[in-house]
Design a protein that fits this description.
This protein is of the alpha/beta class. Helices cover 45% and strands 18% of the residues. A hairpin with a 4-residue loop joins strand 6 (137-142) and strand 7. The chain binds 5'-O-[(R)-(carboxyoxy)(hydroxy)phosphoryl]adenosine (KG4) and zinc ion (ZN). 5'-O-[(R)-(carboxyoxy)(hydroxy)phosphoryl]adenosine binds at residues 11, 143-145, 174, 177-178, 189-192, 195, 307-309, 311-312, 339-340.
Length: 371
């Protein structure tokens, strides 16, 4: 059974994991260790990730994190069959630390270097958690940097084929959570904080607008000369997300609340909880409406939600209710595997290693990279 070291440094988590094959096609990966050094405390005072600070912190942490992942996985350097690393997308200075480290280890151990796309890693987290997903699957990858819908199919060589069928035309959903938390002075990162506060709020208290995709835009098919083209264009629009209007609506609502209270201090706790719950409701509905619409349109056999926002409790619970009503198996990662981690990178790396998709030592980190 092959064993790889996975390394992930695309944003603000320095992560390393040891992942091995199991020999069982239905549950192909075993996570032997999964270590994450979070930089949240470092970036908190700036209200978001500061790229320069992030890359310096990765440099400080990477050796210890990798050593800990080997120790807790009970695996020695000589047992590794490959080094899988996130090549992109992400912050280039952060990615470079992981890529340079992985190249050095691969060269010194003389084992393959495996470049992994960060979002392929998030999608692989579904397999790590649940075993093989039923394809074709519609998978929503929803994080601080992305809100993408993929139609995932199996390739004959054992890899996945990823077709991008929808994405956000402005902010990512996680980014909207983070920005709304900043507007409400709740701290960073906003997603988990809003999730927690929303539990005490009334989700119908504020009627925030739901984005409807009616304008022509860059992602829609431009072919409007045939009925098929028109139908395709309509469908493409129904699969697009938009969160910046919602964020602006929250901002206006907060300003108005301050004006009517005649103060610029903090809003009453109950109002903040209502705003969080109402905002979260709109985001969750927008995500799930499009995911299930896509699943029906594309004849999916299952649906999946991956990425940091997949940790959201309302998205998870409402996703399960809707999936069971529509009779779609729903795959989601556990909390540890939803946010950035290296187990998903190691697992995606093993899938690539099996079909020889390895890299040379001239591999470079790439800030924007298509899947
Ligand atoms: O996948 P991830 O760890 O990093 C990126 O690749 O971006 O996702 C981080 C994002 C952040 O925007 C964070 O606020 C959001 O995921 N997030 C959540 C929750 N936990 C993390 N959003 C909503 N609810 C949560 N419970
Ligand atoms: Zn991520």
């Amino acid at each position: 059974m092959r064993v790889v070291l996975g390394i992930e440094t695309s944003c603000d988590e320095t992560a390393a994991a040891v992942v091995s094959e199991t020999g069982d096609p239905n549950s192909p990966w075993r996570v032997c260790s999964n270590v994450v050094a979070s930089q949240i405390n470092l970036h908190r005072e700036w209200g978001g990730v500061v790229p320069e600070l992030a890359s310096r912190q990765h440099l400080r942490d990477i050796c210890g994190v990798v050593e800990r992942s080997l120790d807790s996985g009970n695996v020695s350097w000589s047992e590794l069959d490959g080094i899988a690393v996130t090549q992109g997308p992400g912050l280039v200075g952060s990615l470079l630390v992981g890529v340079a480290f992985a190249k050095a280890v691969s060269a010194s151990l003389d084992v393959p270097l495996i470049p992994v796309h960060h979002l392929a890693g998030h999608i692989e987290s579904l397999v790590v958690e649940n075993g093989q997903v039923l394809t074709p699957a519609v998978v929503l990858v929803v994080s601080g940097g992305h809100t993408n819908l993929y139609l995932v199919n199996d390739k004959s060589d054992g890899r996945f084929d990823f077709r991008l069928i929808g994405r956000t035309r402005d902010d990512a959903a996680g980014e909207a959570f983070d920005k709304v938390a900043t507007l409400l002075d709740l701290g960073y990162p906003g997603g988990p904080i809003i999730d927690r506060i929303a539990r005490d709020g009334n989700d119908e208290a504020v009627k925030f607008p739901v984005a409807r995709m009616t304008h022509s835009d860059r992602n829609a098919s431009p072919d409007l000369s045939t009925p098929v083209g028109i139908a395709e264009t309509r469908r493409a629009r129904r699969l697009e997300f938009s969160f910046s209007g919602l964020k602006t609506a929250v901002k206006r609502h907060v300003q108005k609340s301050h004006e009517s209270a005649g103060s610029s201090g903090s809003l009453p706790k109950g109002d903040v909880a209502d705003i969080c719950a109402s905002f979260q409701r709109v985001v969750v509905h927008s995500l799930l409406d499009r995911m299930f619409f896509a699943a029906q349109e594309f004849g999916a056999r299952s649906v999946g939600i991956a990425g940091g926002v997949a940790a959201n409790s309302r998205l998870r619970s409402e996703g399960m209710v809707r999936a069971s009503a529509l009779q779609f198996p729903l795959f989601m990662p556990s909390m540890d595997l939803a946010t950035d981690n290296a187990a998903m990178i190691g697992a995606a790396g093993l899938r690539l290693l099996r079909c020889g998709k390895t890299a040379q030592l001239n591999l470079n980190a790439t800030a924007s990279l298509d899947l």
